[in-house]
Amino acid sequence: MPAEITRAPLAPHKERLLWLVAIAFFLQSLDATILNTALPAMARSLGQSPLKMQSVIVAYSLTTAMLIPASGWVADRFGTKRVFMWAIGLFVLGSVLCALSPSLGFLIAARVVQGVGGAMMLPVGRLAVLRSHPKGDFIRAMSFIAIPGQVGPLLGPTLGGWLVEVATWNWIFWINVPVGLFGIWATRRWMPESAPVLQRQFDGVGYALLSFGMVAISVALDGMSGMGLGMALVVVLMVFGLASLASYWMHALRVPEPLFAPVLFRVRSLRVGLLGNLFARFGTGAAPFLIPLLLQIGLGLAPMNAGLMMLATVLGSMLVKRIAVQTVQRFGYRRVLQVNSIMVALMLATFGWTVPGQPTWLLLLQLFVFGGFNSMQFSAMNSVTLKDLDGEFASSGNSLLSMVQMLAMGIGVALAGALLSGYAEMWQADPAKSLRAIHATFMTVALMTLAATLVFSQLDKDEPVKPAPDGGDA
Asked: How far apart are CA 104 and CA 111, in angstroms?
């Protein structure tokens, strides 16, 4: 069905709709950053080791990755307004369940509920804005709603540390409730109705194969950290997960309307960008989980002080965002991504040398520089992945990129958790085993990040470079 038919008339409350979708962006970006600083306090409250709390993050990332491919179809089938309202409702429900969690298992299940809502909020919100704004106004609209998404990471670490000190970790979830309830009310009032539009048949078999593959591999990696899964089950899950992904690929080659068309992968920049995202985020995706552990468990900082220190990373990221496009235009994607991957790996390795008593200014400088290189990596990776897609492939490619981002982030955290657990057991008799395990994990993920350099070397050397939209730091 032509796109002109599915686009709704201009909404009477366009500006209020932008604020509504911006609230959803803020909720998710805040939740993604406020949790990391509170993990050690949550571990103490739930009687767990702070080095084995990665499942709380993995559960959310994996759920989001699994549901992103279905979000557009669900919105077309049931209407953007209804789906967006249910997405916020599930996010609020998940937040309440997280706040009330009496055990780690309950908390992980609650994070899955939260992830279901989060997976639908952002893509459906973007779709509502697209259908309510003319093409010429869409870029301005998306720029506006992206601003709160940048404020969330700025507030999250410090707010999380402050809430842990003045109250309890439960409040990092309670604060989502009033904002979410207002979002539900505002959706009913301001979001335009959109008639359900079923543009194509949903590839349920392909979705099941892809989802099972992602879940099985991620759970197997998480199980390597000793979260109750025996080694035999880990191996079985890994084998079936890989078999499921291979089966999806063969399925996609023979059905007329697969979830992601194999023809997408004929675009060289997309292939390299997706694989580069995957391998680079195995390392960088673990950083938001590892850095708060280093600051609190390794260096003994209070939660709020650790959160304040994390602001240096955000400031470095925001500063580099202003020059990312010009840097890529000057040096080209291949050179920028190869050199920057090495610099990100080196900065991750420097955290493996951080010791108690180190000057505060030096630690702040490490965090600031790491944030800058990390931001450059995300901007260049996302841009090169999508820059050669147009027409019918642009939306599908964007969904595929979002799925790979969340999957890689979850796998990165799962791998970091497995490494922490393994190194801690290796140095069981050492009184400083936690710090040594954190140091060794940083060095290992730094080495893993270097693998992305090999992938980005496959980009065309003399490829013409043109400005492309910044994909953000998702």
From this structure: 10
